[in-house]
Amino acid sequence: MTSGAEVLAVEGLVQQFEGRHGLADRIARRPPHVVRAVDGVDLVLREGETLGLVGESGCGKSTLSRCVVGLYQPTAGVIRLAGSPVAGSPTRAQRRFVQIVFQDPYSSLNPRMTVGQTLGELLRYHRIVPRDQVERRSKELLDLVGLPHRALGQTPRQFSGGQRQRIGIARALALEPKVLIADEPVSALDVSVQANIINLLLDLKQSLGLSMIFVSHNMAVVRQVSDRTAVMYLGRIIETGPTEQVFHAPAHPYTRLLLGSVPRLATHVAARNGGATISPIPAEPVPVAAASIDEATGPEGAAGGCRYRPRCPVAVAACATEPGLRLVSGEADGRHRAACQHVTGAE
């Protein structure tokens, strides 16, 4: 794992949204329903590091990513880029510092603009190169992502899904960022091209010296690409540490459940651990409505308590108090932590 300088730090980040508040609600004087999509996240990314951010759909991964890249203005908390806080809307330099590759490569591209127009607009607006060198730089970006130069005159509908994602990657790289966020970059692609895109991202990270946050719900992919892994559940980080430690010795029941739900991954880990398997923790399924954060009652209706408690088979009375991230027993360097009452280390 890298020990480079901090390039990105998130402290106490909160992003909340108000639900619909119709006429009947106003007449009845009901307060607006508020959802905390991100609820007090602390995160650090170091130079040259790949951080895997995992969790089930709806846990807040993409919202956190959009806050970091500046698409959402957080309700509370601090974002620091290379030590400098982002105050309000990011400056032009801060927007260049961190860029994102979106999940759906088609909806993230303007269907009426050619690839050359898409890249050229960014290069000119941010003054990356002189105007007479825009086309040359655009061709270099296509070379980086493995697309022919003739793509500059074509629109997104003329490409396959994998090619569109390569265009999205080229667009992100046009601003020469230091941090790249890959938000589920392969989940909308055919299985046959997923590995190619992942390998492309890893090659670009190495050759360009990028730091990367790789967002996914696919545990096998995260293990392959990440130096460190953070597991997210209902708006909070509930376990974090070096990837191999998190995968070999998961400390939080939810992490164990995620790992146990991937049969091939469990078999692979068993082979490396001399036959020791990761046993999935049985948990009764809960309705989607029960797995939401309500401002009035707290996470999953348990105000102040562990938000995983309604699903956890090892919940105890102490789980009525939500723990912070605690040092996992036997962890010498202090990097593997989990937010669980059964983890007895210091917070």
Describe the structure.
By secondary structure, the protein is an alpha/beta fold. It has a single domain (6-250), classed as P-loop containing nucleotide triphosphate hydrolases (Rossmann fold). The protein contains eleven helices and 14 strands. An eight-stranded mixed sheet has the order 6-7-8-3-9-10-14-13, with helices on both faces. A four-stranded antiparallel sheet has the order 2-1-4-5, with helices on one face. Residues 265-302 have low confidence and may be disordered.
How would you summarize this macromolecular structure in one to three sentences?
This protein has 347 residues and is α/β, with parallel strands linked by helices.
Task: From the structure above, extract its key features.
single chain, 347 residues, alpha/beta, Rossmann fold, 4-stranded antiparallel sheet, 11 helices, globular
What overall form do the CA principal axes indicate?
Answer: globular
- Quickly name the level 1 CATH class: Alpha Beta
Give the SSE order as H and E letters. Answer: EHEEHEEHEHHHEHEHEEHHHEEEE
Strand order, main sheet: write it out: 6-7-8-3-9-10-14-13
CATH superfamily: P-loop containing nucleotide triphosphate hydrolases
Poorly predicted ranges? 265-302
Give the DSSP E fraction (strand runs of 2 or more residues): 15-25%
Distance between the termini: 22 Å
Reported for the largest beta sheet, the result is: 8 strands, mixed
Summed over residues and divided by their number, the pLDDT gives a mean of 85
Q: Using the coordinates shown, work out and report the CATH topology.
A: Rossmann fold
Number of alpha- plus pi-helical segments: 11
